[in-house]
Design a protein that fits this description.
By secondary structure, this protein is of the alpha/beta class. It has two domains: about 160 residues, D-Maltodextrin-Binding Protein, domain 2 (3-Layer(aba) Sandwich), CATH 3.40.190.10; about 100 residues, Periplasmic binding protein-like II (D-Maltodextrin-Binding Protein, domain 2). Helices cover about 40% and strands about 20% of the residues. The chain has a seven-stranded mixed sheet with strand order 1-3-2-4-11-5-12, with helices on both faces. The chain has a five-stranded mixed sheet with strand order 8-7-9-6-10, sandwiched between helices. Helix 1 links the parallel strand 2 and strand 3. Helix 1 packs across helix 8, helix 3 packs across helix 11 and helix 8 packs across helix 9.
């Protein structure tokens, strides 16, 4: 688990920004450090940045209220809003756009050619994984009988499996492909575009209080859309800016929430 900004000794624990573990802890720290600094300035007290070892562990920490603010997976964000005491702050202007990618020199040209093969992904509970599983099933390739969907922990591991011949394709989002670093956008080719969903959600725990959360939302939108620092941050994240989370955004995630619940029931 990564922790940044935690005071030493007997000082009170900082507020925590919890980032869903879709990339390595080091890469998440690099990407989200400016956001941690923003929350620290706005809240006027130390803010730490933490992730978790898996989506299941992250979900459990959200359920326990460990995090004060979240940058969370869409489906887990809907659960956080419905069941765990978190309130919406903002979302990227861009949607989550899952992709099925293959190596640039792969002979595969159509999704149907994945029958009997392995497709790697980051985490079973990631919304892009859930969306890809639904897409494959609708394309006549139900995961399990027709194609093996194998979780590798992070996008980097999932893509590395392509290089090592452990999979024929990988599930990754447009934004994650930008964020992961290196020359991956040049090394892979899009085999199929999965229908988009609402994206990563920024949320705050209701214990911060309505006035603080309302101010955070205003200032976060201003930071992301009007300041050079925020515009650069959300450009690097592939967000293109921020807007409020709507009721329609949250309702669109309910089918994936049902998928998450089924997965949790198997654990």
């Amino acid at each position: 688990m990564l922790a940044i900004g935690r005071p030493a000794g007997s000082q009170p624990r900082p507020l925590l920004l919890g980032i869903v573990p879709y990339l390595t802890a080091r890469r998440l720290a690099e990407l989200y450090e400016p956001l941690r600094q923003f929350f620290e300035r706005e809240l006027g007290q130390p803010v730490g940045l933490e992730t978790a070892s898996s989506y299941v562990a992250y979900h459990a920490r959200c359920a326990a209220g460990d995090y004060d603010v979240l940058a969370t997976s869409p489906a887990l964000g809907r659960i956080a809003e419905r069941e765990q005491g978190y309130l919406p702050l903002a979302r990227p202007l861009t949607d989550l756009e899952p992709l099925l990618v293959v190596l640039r020199d792969s002979p595969l040209r159509e999704v149907r050619e994945l029958r009997g093969k392995v497709v790697t992904t980051s985490d079973p509970m990631a919304t892009l994984t859930l969306a890809a599983r639904r897409y494959l099933a609708e394309a006549g390739l139900p995961p399990g009988p027709a194609v093996t969907v194998r979780a590798m922990g992070t996008h980097a591991n999932s893509l590395a499996a392509l290089v090592h011949g452990e999979s024929a394709a990988a599930v990754v989002s447009v934004t994650a492909l930008k964020q992961i670093g290196g020359d991956w956008p040049e090394r892979v080719r899009v085999l199929a575009r999965v229908p988009p969903t609402p994206p990563l959600l920024y949320m705050a725990h209701r214990r911060l209080g309505a006035p603080t959360i309302e101010r955070l939302q205003r200032q976060m939108l201003r930071f992301g859309n009007e300041t050079p620092e925020g515009q650069e941050l959300f450009r690097r994240l592939g967000h293109d800016g921020l807007r409020p989370i709507t009721a329609a955004d949250l309702a669109a995630l309910d089918p994936f929430v049902a998928d998450v619940k089924r997965l949790l029931d198997t654990l």
